[in-house]
UniProtKB/TrEMBL annotation:
This is D-3-phosphoglycerate dehydrogenase. Catalyzes the reversible oxidation of 3-phospho-D-glycerate to 3-phosphonooxypyruvate, the first step of the phosphorylated L-serine biosynthesis pathway. Also catalyzes the reversible oxidation of 2-hydroxyglutarate to 2-oxoglutarate. Keywords: NAD, Oxidoreductase. It comes from Marinihelvus fidelis. Pathway: Amino-acid biosynthesis; L-serine biosynthesis; L-serine from 3-phospho-D-glycerate: step 1/3.
Amino acid sequence: MYKVRTYNKISEKGLGLFDSERYNIGEGLESPDAFILRSQKLHDEAFPDSLLAIARAGAGVNNIPIPDCTEKGVVVFNTPGANANAVKELVVAGMLLASRDVYGGMNFVQSLTDMDDAGEMAKRLEAEKKRFAGGEIAGKTLGIVGLGAIGSMVANMGLELGMSVAGFDPALSVEAAWRLSSRVQKVDNLHALLKICDFVSLHIPANEHTRGLVDDEAFAAMKPGGCLINFAREEIVDPEALVKALDEGRLHRYVADFPRPELLGRPEAILMPHIGASTAEAEQNCAVMATRQLMDYLENGNITNSVNFPQTRMGRNGGWRITFANRNVPKVLGSVLSVLADRDINVIDMVNKSRGEIAYNIIDVESEPGPGALEAIAAAEGVIRLRVLPPKA
Ligand SMILES: NC(=O)c1ccc[n+]([C@@H]2O[C@H](COP(=O)([O-])OP(=O)(O)OC[C@H]3O[C@@H](n4cnc5c(N)ncnc54)[C@H](O)[C@@H]3O)[C@@H](O)[C@H]2O)c1
Ligand SMILES: O=C(O)CC[C@@H](O)C(=O)O
């Protein structure tokens, strides 16, 4: 029986895929084989020795200590693109809220509780509506920082809304480039993008390269009166520089999914409680993808959409399956194959992949590897984590 510890609210559409005869699923389970979670911060959490994998039902993995996981041979998965449409739709809402005083206008109307004459009320609304006028987004320039799953969707949507769209992404994947309209202008540095855009939307991960990326210099480079939209992560925008840019009126609006105390009460800050991915559709997509990836890893050792291990997959062929993670240095695979050869264990098929400093292997063998073989493999120089999976048709 596999044990999967859950954190946060994971859609039942995903959790329901775990067969209850083979999986025990729940919060706080002891000695779990895996975690499945959303935004739960794991940096201060001790990992049980039993932990083989973590599935993040979502895109960002800055809540997980990835280097520690890699060191321990714990495979971390995310669900690329599964919540991208939800975020894209909220970015559009954010741009509209930054352009038109929808919120102020609605609050004004709801405040007229002392009025009971419809005619008088209509006169008052017409007299005061000029306070809530705004601009249109069509014809404006939208800049996207990070043209991955979300950024490319936002870029294409901007074009459909009649905007000019520019994008900056120094590591654009081939897949993302295919998704992107050729009408999106590619800009080769951040400040050049900031200079030409009325709206700038961030769609990059929070990591050591992007923390504080939007700083004093970036705000100074921005087109005066522009709007910044941040559905990516709080840490990407330097809070002091942000407040300064708002105080000086250089930044017209800050639309963000990550409120901070110093922004509360400021009408220029349009803040939401991290709800970019909070739609039933996105929650289901993420949970289903995370669950499928986790099951395939636990049952077959296959790795799809990991953020720290190489994509590795091999169909089952009736044999016993040995999987192991190792440091990406010479001779490790050779030593393991020698252990098998010395014990007359015949290899049916194998795959060996590497990613940076880590390598991962799947070796299918004809007969069950005994304890002696497994001990010798686990002891081979460079091997970090070993598993054996019984035959499966
Ligand atoms: N608010 C929410 O609920 C919510 C939901 C989903 C994702 N997110 C955040 O959005 C981020 C992006 O999500 P995604 O699904 O598009 O990820 P993604 O991996 O598909 O795309 C990220 C893109 O950013 C690019 N990039 C990385 N560093 C960059 C830099 N310094 N400058 C420019 N481009 C850079 C990468 O090359 C990649 O193309 C996530 O990491 C997460 O933090 C937030
Ligand atoms: O799970 C969530 O609600 C947020 C997910 C989002 O921040 C992500 O990075 O995918």
